[in-house]
From TrEMBL:
GO terms for biological process: fucose metabolic process. This is ABC-type ribose transport system, auxiliary component. Keywords: Isomerase. It comes from Serratia ficaria. GO terms for molecular function: D-ribose pyranase activity; fucose binding; L-fucose mutarotase activity. InterPro entries: RbsD-like_sf, RbsD/FucU_mutarotase, RbsD_FucU.
């Protein structure tokens, strides 16, 4: 029996396969996890019901297993207040840069061969997709 904050077998297996510079996506409930991700990426569906498993909680638990070098969000309209981003910034290390990518650039980054894991969340907020780049072990 694993004694840690993250016990989901498929997530643990996929995270164990990630190395430095691997990417993983925490997708909001609007993201097309099949068509906008590499076909060989592991997909983990944690979206039981809208809003039941928010993306920041997933990030919090993921951070107990891996170090994060950088992150990317899809750019949102200038007048949009991204509450999810504010929560991510509180959880991510201060040294973690967050880049904002235009929609098509974000999709292209996720579709990279470096993206090994896609986690579908029940996150209902728009622009809450978070692409993480794994850092080396400290």
């Amino acid at each position: 029996m694993i004694k840690s904050d993250l016990i989901h077998p498929q997530l643990l297996c996929a995270l164990a396969q990630c190395g430095h510079k691997s990417q993983l996506l925490i997708a909001d409930g609007n993201y097309a996890c099949v068509t906008n991700a590499p076909k060989d990426a592991t997909r983990v569906y944690l979206n039981l019901s809208p809003g039941t498993l928010a993306a920041p909680l997933i990030l919090e638990k993921i951070l107990t297993c891996i170090n994060v070098e950088s992150a990317a969000l899809m750019a949102c309209p200038p007048d949009f207040i991204n509450g999810a981003e504010a929560e991510y910034r509180r959880l991510l290390p201060a040294s973690c840069a967050i880049e904002h990518l235009a929609r098509e650039d974000f999709y292209a980054a996720v579709k990279s061969d470096r993206t090994l894991l896609v986690i579908a969340s029940g996150e209902r907020r728009r622009f809450a997709n978070l692409l993480l780049t794994v850092a080396p072990v400290a």
